[in-house]
Amino acid sequence: SHDMCTCDRNFQGADCSLRTCPFGKAHVDTPRGDLDASLTIGDHNDIILAGSTLYPYGIIEGFPLMSDTAGTVIANTAHDYMECSNKGLCDRINGLCECLPGYDGAACQRASCPSKANSSTPGSGQGERSNTNFKVFNANSAFHGRAAEVVQRDQCSGHGTCMTIEQLAFLDHGNTYDLWDKDVTMGCKCDPGYTGP
């Protein structure tokens, strides 16, 4: 108790020198499984580990408690809040997420709109940072500082507007889209005379 660091908020590691990256709703959840070796998976309110620097409110084994738009609790859910939304890698030095191809935002919480130009989201452009050439991990580090570079540009090929799926649904005769990804799934609303993703 006298030779251990207690880290300030958003810092972690044995000497508190590592940063914690932003959290967002996970596009895909990582199952945690039987963390306490009890041979059972706990419920959404069974906290296994409390007070960690990364999860100060605790870690659970079961799916998070979620409800549908009618308020009905859903027993088998996903999309809990995760670091870099489970679609990016955390640069522990700067506390910035490096998003995987096709995702952007501070916590990689949005799906990127298609773009023909290179951007800070590897894989959304052409050339050395296209999907086929982007490597998630190499021998040194998975992070190369790309998160701090220019944001997405030339989205929708410059001939449309990048919008959320909720907005696109509403523009289609006032449809309602109210699922978990209403603010994170993105698409192009093409200008007149243009089509395609």
From TrEMBL:
What name appears for this protein in its UniProt entry?
Sexually induced protein SIG 1
Q: Which UniProt keywords apply?
A: Disulfide bond, EGF-like domain, Signal
Q: State the species of origin.
A: Thalassiosira weissflogii (Marine diatom)
Q: Which PANTHER family match?
A: EGF-LIKE-DOMAIN, MULTIPLE 7 (PTHR14949:SF56), EGF-LIKE-DOMAIN, MULTIPLE 7, 8 (PTHR14949)
Q: Name one Pfam family in it.
A: EGF_2
Disulfide cross-links? 99-108
Q: Which InterPro entries match?
A: Dev_Signal_Modulators, EGF, EGF_extracell
Residues forming the EGF-like domain are: 80-109
